[in-house]
Amino acid sequence: MIPPFAKPFTYQVNWRSRSYHTGYHRGAQAGLGVEFRGNVPLIDYPDARRIDINQTIRDTSEQVHVRIFNQKNPTTVYAICDVSASMQFRGSNSKMSLASEIAASIAYSAYQAGDRFSLIGFDHMVRKEWTTLPSTRMHDAFAMAEKLRTFKPLSRGSEGLVQVASHLAQTRGLAFLISDFHMPLETLEQALNTLSRHHVVPLVLWDSGEYRKLPKFGLSVIIDPETGEERTLFFREALRRKFAEAFYERRQQLKALFQRYESPACFVEDQFNPAAISEYFQQFSAL
To answer: Which strand ranges, in their side-by-side order, compose the sheet holding 116-122?
Structure first.
């Protein structure tokens, strides 16, 4: 059963899938399709339904030619989800709840496109208990997303993101990175290097309560995004401004880093809008 929080969107890939199965993306295999690939002798591709009369007439060696086409094929779609301590933040929404909604929406979108889907969770390591094998069956993915909604992450660290590439297929896939990216930029850059074979889409989960909807004056308990530890701070206008400036600077750093790897960031604040992801692919489909 499809959960109500799974909201599908459309996506495109800019490479040729090498799968032998039929799907919705451009493929590298000859077969049924509408993308003209070329002409070959009938003896090499014995399908009389595709005889090209014009090319056959022009051939001085009197060989019969057929037209061949590239068939459309599926690809593998990954939702790589941060389950580290910083994702326990709850402001306008719970980050883990938002992450589970996005993961379920990616799974549903992959299912509609006939693609295989895999969920991979990480903190300081890749978490097998939060990982599913690539499959076209959505039941396991939706069940895992349901569990994520109420999960309270406590493990510190995000080094597991660097290990994720070894859990992906060798063939190129579409990898959604779901995280608040409150991790060292060095770790993130190292991970992007390991994922260079794949098309990476970073989904940056921030909450307005982290930096915009802060107390105007007085004591407040906040969670350190890197360690997950609680800290009590005395807020005043100068400190509020410092938080806003820090997040603005971080946004610019993330945007610049992802752009360098031709993986523009998509910022998701407070709530998930599937139409924004569809627009993202329309805007950056040429990358």
So the answer is: 126-127, 116-122, 76-82, 174-179, 199-206, 266-269
What's the DSSP call for residue 88?
Answer: G
For residue 97, what are the CA distances in angstroms to 11, 66, 110?
Answer: 23, 54, 20
| pTM reported for the whole predicted model | 0.77
Determine the Cα–Cα distance for residues 156 and 153; give it in Å rounded to an integer: 9
pLDDT tens for each residue of 27-77: 445 555 555 666 778 777 777 777 787 777 888 777 888 777 666 667 899
Which superfamily is assigned to 76-282 in CATH? von Willebrand factor, type A domain (3.40.50.410)
Q: Where are the domains of the chain?
A: 25-73, 76-282
